[in-house]
Design goal:
Elements (H helix, E strand, L loop, with lengths): L1 E4 L2 H17 L6 H10 L5 H13 L4 E5 L5 H4 L16 H14 L1 E5 L9 E3 L18 E4 L11 E8 L5 E6 L10 H4 L4 E2 L18 H19 L3 E2 L2 E4 L2 E4 L13 H17 L1 E4 L5 E5 L3 E5 L12 E8 L16 E2 L1
Parallel strand pairs: 1-2, 3-16
Antiparallel strand pairs: 2-13, 3-15, 4-15, 5-14, 6-13, 6-15, 7-12, 7-14, 8-9, 10-11
């Protein structure tokens, strides 16, 4: 694990920077703030930037944990009942800015038209009615381990989480590809395009507003949902592993993979990989003020179940998707500087 704890000196440098930026914008979703984030990130403490750059370039681990960000839970107020509208008048705005700047050292943040109404920064919190649904807002059911957005060719290089509340020390589960015994697996079979990855439930239309109020955005979003439905109806075959055969990257989400019709060798290789991942899974208990950056090419992640209270004290995280190749999704975005994939 790649780890760094902020010092009091770091906090003294960060406080006026974050306060000043917060005066200039009203919400973390402000397009100009997101556009300027990579420039503003240059004002972060040098040792913090170097730490994140080491993680980005050297790949010392698939898990990067940054601790020590000040979070006053009384000032935060209650955990929202839903992610809708939680970005307006946010009590965690300065923490969100810090999260955005750190993420921008690793790459470009982006969102999905089909997730949380196209927002860039997501809320991860329990929602009534989702308790046993395979989605990040569930609670009583484990969130199965997965590559984030494994089904999509524009999935991010990193998925990042910032903890605001975790009163029950709910465990985030992670497996680092570097911990796997690749010599015991049929790597060649896993590099073959024989595996079907289905869209996950967070991209389904029932989890979105009926309309955003913008007819152009609504048309583009409808097109996105139709494309996702087409992938459900006619799954595309893809490899699970890619990159270097001796130190491979991976993309898989077993809960959303249909094994019907797979070649016998592919099925055996997949099952052996899943068993190896299960054996090497470890847990991380995020505390308020912890930021974790998960290499989405080199790790799978999930979450243990917990019992929600729905009284304002529940677990509350923020989430960002980060790409190192924004141009790679240009055909999915309406403009070169637009951050939402349709």
């Amino acid at each position: 694990m790649h780890e760094l704890t902020l010092t009091p000196q770091d906090g003294a440098q960060l406080a006026p920077l974050l306060t000043e930026i917060a005066k200039m914008y009203d919400t973390i979703e402000d397009a100009e703030l997101i556009r300027q984030a990579r420039v503003l990130a240059r004002s972060l403490p040098t040792r913090l930037v170097e730490f994140l750059e080491d993680f980005r370039l050297g790949e010392p681990s698939a898990l990067c944990v940054l601790s020590g960000l000040a979070v006053d839970e009384e000032l935060l107020g209650p955990t929202p009942e839903h992610w809708r509208d939680s970005q307006y008048g946010s009590p965690s705005f300065t923490q969100e800015i810090f999260f955005l700047l750190c993420a921008s050292v690793l790459g470009d943040v982006f969102g999905w038209a089909t997730q949380q109404d196209g927002r860039i920064m997501h809320d991860v919190l329990p929602i009534k009615g989702h308790e046993n649904y395979e989605i990040g807002s569930n609670s009583l059911q484990h969130l199965s381990w997965h590559t984030e957005d494994a089904f999509h060719p524009c999935r991010g290089d990193y998925v990042a989480l910032m903890c605001l509340k975790n009163p029950d020390a709910v465990e985030t589960t992670v497996c680092d590809a570097g911990d796997l015994d690749w010599s015991s697996l049929d790597v060649a079979a896993l590099f073959e395009p024989e595996f079907t990855q289905m869209p996950d439930n967070s991209h389904q239309p029932q989890n979105a507003r009926q309309s955003t109020g913008d007819p152009v955005v609504d048309r583009l979003r409808i097109r996105s949902f139709e494309l996702i439905q087409s992938w459900n109806d006619d799954p595309v075959k893809r490899p699970i592993l890619f990159g270097d055969s001796l130190d491979p990257y991976m993309a898989l989400d077993p809960y959303h993979m249909k094994t019907d019709g797979w070649p016998e060798r592919s099925l055996r290789a997949f099952e052996a990989l899943c068993a190896e991942i299960e054996a090497k899974m470890r847990s991380v208990r995020l505390r308020p003020g912890d930021l974790v950056f998960i290499d989405n090419f080199r790790a799978v992640h999930g979450r243990k179940s917990f019992r929600p209270r729905y009284d304002g004290s529940d677990r509350w995280l923020k989430r960002l998707n980060i790409t190192r190749n924004l141009r790679g999704s240009r055909g999915w975005r309406p403009a070169a500087d637009h951050r939402v994939i349709y």
